[in-house]
Write a structure and sequence with these properties.
53% of the residues lie in helices and 19% in strands. It has 429 residues and is α+β, with helices and mostly antiparallel strands. The strands form three sheets. Strands 6-8-9-11-10 form a five-stranded mixed beta sheet, with helices on one face. A four-stranded antiparallel beta sheet has the order 1-4-3-2. Strands 5-7 form a two-stranded antiparallel ribbon. Helix 4 packs parallel to helix 5, helix 5 runs antiparallel to helix 6 and helix 8 runs antiparallel to helix 9. The two termini are 20 Å apart.
Length: 429
């Protein structure tokens, strides 16, 4: 989920809860205000009625109308002295309406000049609670919905503006490519945290690129400097092996040293090749037929691994698979993939090589699937741990493929290791 949507959802939920609480509080506040105003009206009316009764005792024998009903009732002196005003809600049956109407009732007591105590019951008609609640809910609901919509739109627009520098930074990060110089970032913002984040991202990108360049330069220099010492060491071992006075045990030791030096030479050449590929030193590009490269490599490779008795299945499309690549690199790419499938194939296994106008598929029998994430890393060795493997063959193949816009992938299907080489389709935003 995007940060904008997540923040918007959380704020909208919070706003909804706050509005709901406000609606409930507003409802009860309005009800309380209505009751207070009604009670004030009853008190004022009662004072008027009592004043009239004190000046004209005949008022005591009268009753009010339906909308403001009042009634006087004599009470004892003891009750009158300790009488407390009472307010409450009640209903009155209206014959014309044939239903009970809500009223607000007040009961109070007063003393006549002659010493008699009277109770005044006063009631006035009020809105039906159900009608008032329904009306308030409709108006509050409409107001709540309108406010929520307007606020949500406003929050979304504000958040979109606030997070714009972050989105620009993410687009910039997506544009960074390994081994490529970090592009400039033009992302002005008044938000300090986003400004600090942009500065930190640019600084980290520059440091990563510098470290990458230094590491690549070191590997290239080291590989280049090791070529001569390794060649000299192998030559001296060869000369020493020609000594007829050496014992059989000494010859075995020299053979082991010679093999180790051979692997070191092979590893050194692979590292130097990787460095040159990443440096873009192979500039001579041409259209290369993968099918023709396979036709030239397969006979020799099958002879080398003849002892494994691997059954080759070769299928070709109507048209050859053409790639735009340096011819030497194309040979190395295809050779590494085929040699890997032969080297790690079981004895008496099967090797399938299928080409179409748009892809190359190389499949070989195996026992267990490999880790597709680690497989193309440098110096990665599978579970079989072949001594002849430098752990750089597939890394070199992936590097060559990436340099010429090819996608190299691995999968495990039906007990077979499957490598696919296809032309990469770039997505333009």
């Amino acid at each position: 989920m995007k940060l904008l949507h997540y923040t918007y959802r959380k704020l909208s939920l919070l706003l909804f809860l706050l509005m709901a609480v406000w609606g409930v509080l507003f409802y009860y506040a309005i009800l309380d205000e209505v009751v207070d105003e009604t009670d004030d009206t009853l008190e004022n009316y009662a004072r008027i009625l009592i004043k009239n009764a004190l000046h004209d005792p005949s008022v005591l024998d009268t009753e009010g109308t339906l909308m403001s009903f009042y009634k006087f009732r004599p009470i004892s002196e003891e009750v009158g002295k300790h009488y407390a005003d009472v307010f409450y809600d009640s209903t009155v049956y209206v014959e014309m309406e044939d239903e009970d109407e809500p009223v607000r009732v007040m009961r109070t007591a007063f003393r006549m000049p002659g010493g008699e105590y009277y109770e005044l019951t006063l009631m006035i008609s009020i809105l039906e609670r159900d009608d008032m609640v329904e009306t308030m809910l409709w108006y509050l609901g409409a107001l709540f919905l309108l406010f929520l919509i307007c606020t949500s739109i406003g929050i979304r627009l504000v958040l979109k503006g606030v997070f714009r520098p972050l989105h620009k930074l993410l687009d910039w990060l997506h544009g960074i490519q390994p081994g490529k110089e970090v592009p400039p970032l033009d992302n002005p913002t008044a938000i300090r945290e986003f400004r600090q984040l942009s500065e930190a991202a640019v600084d980290m990108g520059n440091r990563s690129y510098k470290a990458y360049v230094e590491q690549k330069q070191f590997i290239e220099n080291a590989s280049h400097e090791l070529q001569t010492p390794l060649a000299i060491a192998r030559g001296k071992v060869e000369l020493l092996a020609e000594n007829e006075e050496l014992t059989e045990q000494q010859m075995k030791e020299l053979d082991a040293i010679y093999s180790t030096l051979g692997r070191a030479v092979k590893l050194n050449k692979s590292l130097l090749l990787l460095s040159r590929i990443e440096n873009g030193q192979y500039t001579e590009m041409e259209d290369v037929s993968v099918d023709e490269v396979l036709d030239g490599l397969l006979p020799d490779l099958m002879d080398i691994y003849e002892h494994k008795q691997v059954h080759l299945v070769r299928k070709q499309g109507e048209e050859p698979f053409m790639i735009h690549c340096n011819h030497s690199l194309a040979q190395i790419l295809i050779s590494n993939l085929v040699k890997n499938s032969l080297l790690h194939n079981r004895e008496g296994g099967e090797l399938q090589i299928i080409t179409t106008p748009a892809s190359l598929a190389i499949r070989n029998t195996g026992d267990t699937p490999l880790d597709g994430e680690k497989l193309f890393r440098r110096f990665y060795h599978s579970m079989d741990g072949k001594k002849d493997s430098t752990g750089l063959g597939l890394a070199i193949a992936r590097s060559i493929a990436c340099s010429v816009s090819l996608r190299l992938t691995y999968s495990w299907q039906d007990g077979m290791h499957c490598f696919y080489l296809v032309k990469e389709i770039k997505n333009y935003r």
